[in-house]
């Protein structure tokens, strides 16, 4: 029996087989991998992944979905279900608990809370091998945007400082039940190796990026007032009259380091 999607959880259940197969093919799980799915729902992606991985973990908040998912998974493989809000899951602790060096994370994320989930995953990036997420296409466009793009912003910078972001393919509304009002897209995120991570205080980097994009039409000398003065901005070879959307992610690290 199909579950009734709950608006409160932002549920849109993927059902079209060809897109499910493309996602599984993109992830290409192996039996040796430790796969963790966020929000398995009815198991449309869970069961095909489990059939290949043989063993995996799913994080589900909706208690009504868990019994049916457990039942369907029983004949496919070993599925462990964690009943929790994903924002409260410590992925580093979960990796240790599962005896894994790093996790492979996947999920069709609720659109209304996708950004907090992305930032939460990035905080635990050292425990993650890669991530494959279904998101609103507009969000994926922002994640992968380059400097100068109209959609380049805080999300672009913070994710690109932590991961390689690769949009994979678009999924139309009709592939879901109920159909969302927007196109979706699948994206791959691969955490950067330690030697490529920003050399600086993460809290300062976050503060600079947040302030710089708080008022997009304002220049850096205005948005960063109180954080970085004009002379310091200029000393980095950055024009204080420039706007945040023209700077590369690495430029924000330089600004944070002279705070």
From TrEMBL:
Its EC number is 2.1.1.182. PROSITE patterns: RRNA_A_DIMETH, SAM_RNA_A_N6_MT. The keyword Cytoplasm applies. It is found in: Cytoplasm. Its main location: cytoplasm. Coiled coil: none annotated. It comes from the Bacteria. S-adenosyl-L-methionine binds at residues 12, 14, 39, 60, 85, 108. Keywords: Cytoplasm, Methyltransferase, RNA-binding, rRNA processing, S-adenosyl-L-methionine, Transferase. The keyword Calcium does not apply. One of its GO terms (molecular function) is 16S rRNA (adenine(1518)-N(6)/adenine(1519)-N(6))-dimethyltransferase activity. Specifically dimethylates two adjacent adenosines (A1518 and A1519) in the loop of a conserved hairpin near the 3'-end of 16S rRNA in the 30S particle. May play a critical role in biogenesis of 30S subunits. Belongs to the class I-like SAM-binding methyltransferase superfamily. rRNA adenine N(6)-methyltransferase family. RsmA subfamily. This is Ribosomal RNA small subunit methyltransferase A.
């Amino acid at each position: 029996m199909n579950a009734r999607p709950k608006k409160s959880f932002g549920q849109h259940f993927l059902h079209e087989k060809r897109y499910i197969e493309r996602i599984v093919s993109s992830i290409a799980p192996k039996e040796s991998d430790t796969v963790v799915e966020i929000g398995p729902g009815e198991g449309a992606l869970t069961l095909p992944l489990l059939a290949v991985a043989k063993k995996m973990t799913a994080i589900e908040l909706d208690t009504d979905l868990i019994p049916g998912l457990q039942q369907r998974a029983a004949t496919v493989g070993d599925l462990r279900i964690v009943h929790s809000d994903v924002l409260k899951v410590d992925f580093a602790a979960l990796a240790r608990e599962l005896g894994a060096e790093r996790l492979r994370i996947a999920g069709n994320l609720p659109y209304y809370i996708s950004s907090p989930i992305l930032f939460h995953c990035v905080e635990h990036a050292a425990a993650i091998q890669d991530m494959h997420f279904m998101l609103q296409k507009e969000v994926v466009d922002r994640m992968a945007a380059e400097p100068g793009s109209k959609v380049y912003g805080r999300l672009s910078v913070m994710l690109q400082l932590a991961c390689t972001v690769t949009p994979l393919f678009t999924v139309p509304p009709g592939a879901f039940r109920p159909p969302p009002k927007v196109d979706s897209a699948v994206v791959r995120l691969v955490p950067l190796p330690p030697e490529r991570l920003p050399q600086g205080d993460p809290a300062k980097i976050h503060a600079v990026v947040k302030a710089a994009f708080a008022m997009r039409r304002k220049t850096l000398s205005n948005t960063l007032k109180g954080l970085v003065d004009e002379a310091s901005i200029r000393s980095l070879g950055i024009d204080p009259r420039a706007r945040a959307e023209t700077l590369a992610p690495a430029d924000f690290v330089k600004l944070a380091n002279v705070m």
